[in-house]
Amino acid sequence: MSASYQHTQSVQPTAPSPTLTEEMTGRPSPSPLQYAFSGKTSAHAGRGGQPPFAAEVAQQQLTNLFSTPVKAQGKRALYVHIPFCRVRCSFCNFFKYASSPQLMEQYFQCLLVDLERKAAQPWSQSQPFDAVYIGGGTPTDLTAEQIYSLGERIRAWLPLRDDCEITLEGRLNKFNQHKFERALAGGFNRFSFGVQSFDTQVRKAAKRLDDRETLLKQLKSLTASNSATIAIDLMYGLPHQTTQSWQQDLEDTLESGVDGVDLYQLLNFQGTGIQRALDNGQLDSLMDTPQRALLYRQGADYLNQAGLKQLSYCHWASTDKERSRYNRLAKSGAEILAVGAGAGGNIGGLSYMQPRDIEPWQTALEANQWPVAMMMAKGKQHQRNARIVGACDQGAVSAELLGEQRFKHAIPLFSAWQQNGLAMLDDEKVTLTLAGQFWSVNMANGLLAYLNENPLAA
């Protein structure tokens, strides 16, 4: 044994420096809102898990889970998917089926089979549901009677809390007074409409239907009835959008009287109409991330100054009626029962997707099997990870939520966030700045990566 080795062995060891990467911390910049990261790491935070199960294992897993009653397992929600649209919007890369009345009726009958079978399971009956979300696609393309029947069956077949939020998603085009009244009669108490922009030119380029005046008139009529919560989505970064048109969108939102509004960043993917227009030279360019970041600040500042309550980094409420409960549950890891082709859910620490195509989904139903295209375990830390994702979505991670020891363990990361203008740190919590909120998905993924790469000592 050499003398030098003997000497180094006698030195008191020091704690290893934590692993910090730019993907976790962001980078120093004069404008962290625009340049802290090169781009959004993913559309949603916390995705991923173990390798998928084999088909027969997935079947058995679902059978075991559904046949087991549960109690006091936290809040839960139902997601029902309607994979039909009359028009494919230019920013959409998941269009599946055109809204053919005959095909939709056939699908609807199978949907009720899927719903009834799952609703009858001991797991489903053992605890009330806190939220229901009918998404798509364009669920408002269903007929008035289909909408009524779906709401009525959900309320009859599943235990729902007295204040359960039951949302119907869709578009305002052809959502007439009759459909609204039948939806209300079926039990729907919240409606979420994809407006994206009020500007007629922007809407036309995005292949959205109806002009600004028509949209405003219809929204004012719906909100004036005070019969349900009305929320809308706006999107920033669309072709032909300017700071002026975006400001008008924000002002139109308040004028419409809606109870809630989401501000979503355009993320352009391969396969969209926008990407094809770029490839074909029909569209010169899109706003880059730094430009979109400025529109986010413009929107957040305007809504906050107008007195709206910020529920998440992208969602604001103008009245107490708006809770956005389903979205908050889904982002925080609540158990989700999935119904319909293309629906995704998670139960008992397992996430699963139903077949996107109607044919294999329907074939599984007819064979009295669970329609599942993919299932995987979410990992041992999935509940912790879900809490982190939900906290970042809402703008602050507290020591109470993370745990005192783990919070202290993450101080090097939080300090780097603060140094880079993404957060403010104190003894009780780390609060995301406006820049941190814009990059909240990156922040959540960064914290998860830090905890995975720098685990606490046993």
Automatic annotation (TrEMBL):
<dbReference type="InterPro" id="IPR026332">
    <property type="entry name" value="HutW"/>
</dbReference>
<keyword id="KW-0808">Transferase</keyword>
<dbReference type="InterPro" id="IPR006638">
    <property type="entry name" value="Elp3/MiaA/NifB-like_rSAM"/>
</dbReference>
<dbReference type="Pfam" id="PF04055">
    <property type="entry name" value="Radical_SAM"/>
</dbReference>
<dbReference type="InterPro" id="IPR058240">
    <property type="entry name" value="rSAM_sf"/>
</dbReference>
<feature type="domain" description="Radical SAM core">
    <location>
        <begin position="70"/>
        <end position="306"/>
    </location>
</feature>
<dbReference type="GO" id="GO:0032259">
    <property type="term" value="P:methylation"/>
</dbReference>
<feature type="region of interest" description="Disordered">
    <location>
        <begin position="1"/>
        <end position="51"/>
    </location>
</feature>
<dbReference type="GO" id="GO:0008168">
    <property type="term" value="F:methyltransferase activity"/>
</dbReference>
<feature type="compositionally biased region" description="Polar residues">
    <location>
        <begin position="1"/>
        <end position="22"/>
    </location>
</feature>
<keyword id="KW-0489">Methyltransferase</keyword>
<dbReference type="InterPro" id="IPR034505">
    <property type="entry name" value="Coproporphyrinogen-III_oxidase"/>
</dbReference>
<dbReference type="InterPro" id="IPR007197">
    <property type="entry name" value="rSAM"/>
</dbReference>
<protein>
    <submittedName>
        <fullName>Heme anaerobic degradation radical SAM methyltransferase ChuW/HutW</fullName>
    </submittedName>
</protein>
